[in-house]
């Protein structure tokens, strides 16, 4: 491991200060191997030469590449020289008032990027939630009792005053007029802006089954949601979680760890169908059952039943699962209503270009609310990167979001499960190298001499190196020419 005094978690972006990375990320629980050496980003000087990050396409002007990419944390050797960039005279100067709607990770990353590049910018940050910004991705760990409320805040309250941010919690932006450059709060107050960044995130999607509004039916998106679920679980209610994706699994695992009697319903034949193949999904099912969770696959919900209060879930095949607590974890949808009403281009999410600009000048969008090249990311790292890039563009520092391969890491279940990129390709033009031994499953997917996807179950220690190879499109033809098995490929990444 290299010499460094700071380490960045590649799963959640947490920066740990010290000579060694921590054994476990205190924020998201990722292991030591997920940490990479980190150097504090510096404000970008503007000069004749420009550099492009091969990871995330961030561009920086200057005689030399930065030690570390301020957007994705990639090291200096991951930058390539570019043709001289035109000087951005206005960068960081006279940018006026920037309004950010939503104080999740996208909103906070935007604030930080703005403050770095434009020390005098006036920043107004509006949040519908009453709590300060928190590690939303850790709500399942909170539910499991692995972290407490003190571990959740993204920034301490005093940080906002120190950074001269006009932070207003518990308020909702109800109307936006891009033409007049004003936002109107519910309650009527109008806020003028020069540039706005929409970072409103997403909300849980609940399929239209009957009974979804009964007392005792919950979703998990906010700290309030988590506290309500915890109160019901502690009261000894038997729980049903609908949805065997990442969120449903972590929620079921968390409740089981709290001693609750939990049933997990997955409509597909195996768990995490969007991220895993059948082999990994079935290995995961065994782990889920070990935790005492009653797992039902191919279990399609017909309706949630009860009078005023939930009594259980009726399945389409006639089975009935009794429960006093039902958690629906069947996906999310972007909070795009504000943008739609404002006349911005909205498809599934708010449509943005590579600079994260929407169809209206002076309005940008980032995070779960944004749709980039037809894609909704719905994950932490993408929201963090996008927030930073939107913040830079908002103050005239040109930066582009180049996309990220999909990536997911399962928390709470005490088993390493990582899926990244194209892990289960549908056509035969991909080379798949896989191996299952001693409950460790590794699957590497190659295309055109490079790694494009992987599933690691039971041992994800090479996850970081594999992700790096995918993101940087590393040429692995020589490795492939040696006809490696999956252990050889893992050994190769372990040596990187
Ligand atoms: C329990 C849970 C576990 C997760 N685990 C993982 C994980 O392990 N890995 C991973 O990559 N991702 C995970 N995610 C997803 C990840 O948390 C999200 O992708 C990320 O938080 C999105 O950040 P965001 O800033 O775009 O939106 P959000 O975090 O949703 O923040 C948006 C904020 O804007 C506010 N808002 C909305 N509309 C308005 C308005 N009109 N006016 C004012 N404020 C408004 C919302 O109330 C919210 O506070 C998890 C999510 C959940 C819920």
Automatic annotation (TrEMBL):
Annotated keywords: FAD, Flavoprotein
Coiled-coil parts of chain: none
GO molecular function per UniProt: iron ion binding; oxidoreductase activity
Residue span(s) of domain Rubredoxin-like: 4-38, 48-82
Keyword Flavoprotein: yes
InterPro entries cross-referenced by the UniProt entry: FAD-bd_OxRdtase, FAD/NAD-bd_sf, FAD/NAD-binding_dom, FAD/NAD-linked_Rdtase_dimer_sf, Rubredoxin-like_dom, Rubredoxin_C, RUBY_RBDX
Cofactor(s) in the UniProt record: FAD
Entries under CDD domains matching the protein: rubredoxin_like, rubredoxin_SM
Name of the protein in its database record: Rubredoxin-like domain-containing protein
Biological source species: marine sediment metagenome
């Amino acid at each position: 491991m290299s010499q460094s005094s700071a380490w960045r978690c590649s799963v959640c972006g947490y920066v740990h200060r010290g000579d060694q990375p921590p054994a476990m990320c205190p924020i998201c629980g990722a292991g030591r191997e997920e940490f990479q050496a980190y150097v504090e980003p510096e404000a970008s000087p503007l000069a004749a030469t420009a550099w492009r990050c091969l990871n995330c396409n961030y561009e920086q002007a200057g005689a030399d590449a930065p030690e570390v990419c301020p957007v994705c944390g990639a090291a200096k050797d991951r930058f390539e020289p570019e043709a001289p960039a035109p000087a951005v005279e206005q960068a960081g100067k006279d940018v006026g008032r920037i309004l950010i709607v939503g104080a999740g990770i996208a909103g906070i990353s935007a604030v930080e990027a703005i403050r770095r590049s434009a020390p005098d910018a006036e920043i107004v940050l509006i949040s519908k939630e009453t709590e300060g910004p928190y590690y939303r991705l850790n709500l399942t760990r909170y539910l499991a009792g692995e972290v407490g409320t003190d571990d959740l805040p993204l920034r301490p309250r005093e940080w906002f005053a120190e950074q001269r941010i006009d932070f207003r919690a518990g308020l909702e932006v109800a109307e936006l007029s891009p033409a007049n450059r004003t936002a109107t709060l519910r309650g009527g107050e109008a806020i003028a802006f020069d540039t706005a960044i929409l970072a409103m995130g997403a909300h849980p999607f609940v399929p239209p089954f009957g009974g979804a509004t009964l007392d005792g039916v919950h979703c998990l998106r906010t700290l309030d949601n988590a506290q309500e679920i915890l109160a019901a679980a502690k009261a000894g209610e038997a729980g049903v979680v609908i949805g065997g994706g990442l969120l449903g699994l972590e929620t079921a695992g968390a409740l089981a760890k709290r001693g609750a009697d939990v049933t997990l319903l997955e409509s597909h034949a195996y768990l995490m169908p969007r991220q895993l193949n059948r082999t990994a999904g079935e290995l995961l099912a065994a782990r889920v059952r070990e935790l005492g969770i009653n797992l039902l696959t191919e279990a399609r919900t017909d309706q949630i039943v009860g009078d005023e209060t939930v009594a259980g879930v009726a399945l389409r095949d006639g089975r009935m699962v009794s429960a006093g607590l039902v958690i629906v974890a069947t996906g999310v949808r972007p909070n795009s209503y504000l943008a739609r009403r404002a006349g911005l281009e909205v498809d599934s999410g708010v449509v943005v270009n590579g600079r994260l600009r929407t169809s209206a000048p002076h309005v940008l969008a980032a995070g779960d609310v944004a749709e980039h090249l037809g894609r909704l990311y719905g994950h932490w790292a993408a929201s963090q990167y996008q927030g930073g890039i939107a913040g830079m563009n908002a103050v005239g520092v040109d930066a582009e979001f180049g996309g990220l391969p999909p990536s997911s890491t399962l928390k709470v279940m005490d088993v390493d499960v990582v899926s990244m990129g194209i892990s289960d390709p549908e056509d035969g033009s991909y080379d798949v190298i896989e191996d299952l031994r001693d409950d460790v499953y590794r699957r590497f997917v190659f295309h055109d001499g490079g790694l494009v996807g992987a599933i690691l179950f039971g041992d994800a220690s090479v996850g970081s190196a594999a992700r790096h190879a995918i993101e940087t499109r590393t040429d692995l033809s020589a490795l492939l020419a040696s006809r490696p098995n999956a252990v050889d490929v893992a050994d190769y990444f372990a040596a990187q």
